[in-house]
Amino acid sequence: VYNSFVRHIICSTMDGFNGTVFAYGQTSSGKTHTMHGDRNDPGIIPRAIHDIFQIIQNTPDREYLLRVSYLEIYNEKIKDLLNPTHDNLKIHMKNNEFYVDDLTEDIVLNPEEVANLLKKGDDFRHTGQTNMNEHSSRSHTIFRMIIESREKNNNNEANNDSAIKVSHLNLVDLAGSERVSQLGGDAQQVKEGVHINLSLFTLGVVIAKLSEGNDNAHIPYRDSKLTRILQPSLGGNARTAIICTITPSSDYQEETHSTLKFAIRAKTIQNKPEVNEIVSDEALLKKYKKEISSLKKQLQEVRKI
């Protein structure tokens, strides 16, 4: 699955294209295993991280800056999994791009640091036991990596005259859809299930509207936090892969049929991804270079004194 449908998206993010990968399907159909895998069989996320750093190692003529964030959407509230005190965060728009206010972004230098941040975030994620799964994901999570890069000059230094490429990679682990009657448990689990189903229903409506190909149609992105954040990935400037998971059990034919209809609609959507290049001081890579240069000058002046 990774080699056939995902690797080209990961590679293109290193060239400045936005990319998104997520799994959709009912509870206990294999979404989290597909995205995370295990030690013996790594999933989409660890394979993507491995390839990103492999590409950096094999591209000595560019320098890179990687930033990582990890958020959870639980009961329609956004929580920062890298800093859990940041709860109920708000979505804003700047320069026609959506961003989550006060979301932690950590700079990472190697795959081990990324893996540690993933583990840290997973420890704060909402999970629970239902009638369908002993460890069911009760929230949606979005693991995002912002990738900035620019060319080096002949002296192996940053070329200040070159454009900076900035891309966003979203790796999304959705909570599972299910009938509330299948959940079991207490009122809290029923509440969780209602919010999950509503956001997934909105995602389905958005996909259905986009598949119609009507440029003038109203797309209800604002009806859920999930579709609001993923708006550029679903119908805009991104290369997107949606992996639909189903269970072979005959007890869930209705859910399987619904997932397959979702997949058929999603396949008809045509995004128009473009390389994201910035020729300004907005990119952090250039800002950090200027700050470092300024600090070096200050240090030299102090030494003279």
From TrEMBL:
One of its GO terms (molecular function) is microtubule motor activity. GO terms for biological process: microtubule-based movement; mitotic cell cycle. Keywords: ATP-binding, Coiled coil, Microtubule, Motor protein, Nucleotide-binding. One of its GO terms (cellular component) is microtubule. Gene3D superfamilies: Kinesin motor domain. Belongs to the TRAFAC class myosin-kinesin ATPase superfamily. Kinesin family. This is Kinesin-like protein. It comes from Anaeromyces robustus.
